[in-house]
């Protein structure tokens, strides 16, 4: 028989876990982790340059400097798996005072995720930047590990429910704690990687960067996982102590 306090803690932890997993899944699948705000473009010379950047961004070979410059100039957004630019829908948009804008996105392939970063973006002779390379790899591997840990915890919890046992609760709580730490590490790796990118890149004048809502969703999911972990660990420890007390009382 499960005490009402433990049952309440388990229900609340399940709700927190589901919310955290949904938030993290949405964050991983969207591109609004970091966004740039570029000034409006006027003049056919600048228009031709930006059009060539856009074409190279959408169809050219993968190159960090090329896509970074395009993101800087075309109100770009970048996430863990997507990079997007905001472009006008009409060909002669520069003649309009308020052109209609559409977002066009390109995904990072698995091979591109493992592509090394260089000390000077775009210059393969400058040497590999090991810190940026591994920060980039960690930022897309860690959320996958986090989601995998939560799925594993859910499977163990489902089996525990079928067996009417609270024994695995402590292990499930530790899995949620590890998932929260992985998510927090993802955000830290992403922010550090973007900071290092801006140090080795030259941002155009009047281009501003800001954090996007996808990153905040990931940041929110981390403490939710940790709170779920705390409730699960408390329920497991309290139930265990109560069980041993009852056993000792019966023996006595």
Automatic annotation (TrEMBL):
Pfam family, one: Claudin_2
Localization terms from the record: Membrane
Alphabetical keyword list: Membrane, Transmembrane, Transmembrane helix
Parts of the chain that traverse the membrane: 140-163, 175-193, 213-236
Topology within the bilayer: Multi-pass membrane protein
InterPro entries tied to this protein: CLDN1, PMP22/EMP/MP20/Claudin
Coiled coil: none
CC per GO annotation: membrane
PANTHER family: CLAUDIN DOMAIN-CONTAINING PROTEIN 1
Protein name (Swiss-Prot/TrEMBL): Claudin domain-containing protein 1-like
Lineage: Eukaryota, Metazoa, Chordata, Craniata, Vertebrata
């Amino acid at each position: 028989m499960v005490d009402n306090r433990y049952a309440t803690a388990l229900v609340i932890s399940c709700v927190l876990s589901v919310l955290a997993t949904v938030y993290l899944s949405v964050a991983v699948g969207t591109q609004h982790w970091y966004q740039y705000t570029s000034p409006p473009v006027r003049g056919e010379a600048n228009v031709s340059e930006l059009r060539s950047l856009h074409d190279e961004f959408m169809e050219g070979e993968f190159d960090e400097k090329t896509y970074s410059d395009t993101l800087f100039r075309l109100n770009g957004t970048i996430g863990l798996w997507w990079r997007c630019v905001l472009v006008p829908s009409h060909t002669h948009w520069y003649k309009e005072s308020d052109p209609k804008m559409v977002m066009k996105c390109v995904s990072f392939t698995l091979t591109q995720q493992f592509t090394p970063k260089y000390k000077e973006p775009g210059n393969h002779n400058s040497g590999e930047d090991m810190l940026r390379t591994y920060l980039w790899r960690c930022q897309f591997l860690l959320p996958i590990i986090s989601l995998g840990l939560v799925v594993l915890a859910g499977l163990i919890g489902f089996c525990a429910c079928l067996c009417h046992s609270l024994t695995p609760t402590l292990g499930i709580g530790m899995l949620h704690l590890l998932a929260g730490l992985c998510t927090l590490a993802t955000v830290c790796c992403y922010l550090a990687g973007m900071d290092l990118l801006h140090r080795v890149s030259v941002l155009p004048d009047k281009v501003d960067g800001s954090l996007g809502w996808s990153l905040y969703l990931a940041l929110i999911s981390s403490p939710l996982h940790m709170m779920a972990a705390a409730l699960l660990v408390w329920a497991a420890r309290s139930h265990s102590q109560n069980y041993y007390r009852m056993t000792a009382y019966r023996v006595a």
